[in-house]
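Per reviewer request, we include the raw input and output of the structure prediction for the construct analysed in the revised manuscript.
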Amino acid sequence: MDLIDKETGDKLNGIIELLDEDKIASLSNSKNFTFDWGIEKNNQVYTISIINDNEILGLMSIIDVPHEFRIHINLIEAAKGQRGKHKTILNIPGCLIAFACRTAFKKGYDGFVSLTPKTRLRNYYSKTYGFMGMGTQMAVFGQDSFLIIQKYLQDEEI
């Protein structure tokens, strides 16, 4: 996984893990996240953190949409201290998105991942990750998904 210490440029060993319902509910009181993650309890919610460190760097909620052969990123968020100019660790959202792409390949969906971004983030998702507009949603699949995985999950299996 390609988490990078912004100051030193060192690669950090990260891990993405599935949260259980109790841990998701406990995030509702967290001051590190803006969204109410408790409402995501019916979805698969993943955390990203550094191995052997309990600090959650980011969260992602995904929904498997098997009849459309896609994974939908319902919500994604970096911790408050890991946003903008003051973040200390790079690639948190990229690693989470790459994880969703890898999941979509494993399920036989050709890496098809969708999300519904805030309007101001459409260009960001397009330029940074290669997502294409599809109505109100954006999506990435095939070779573009594979490239995201290669960039952010370099040393992990697809």
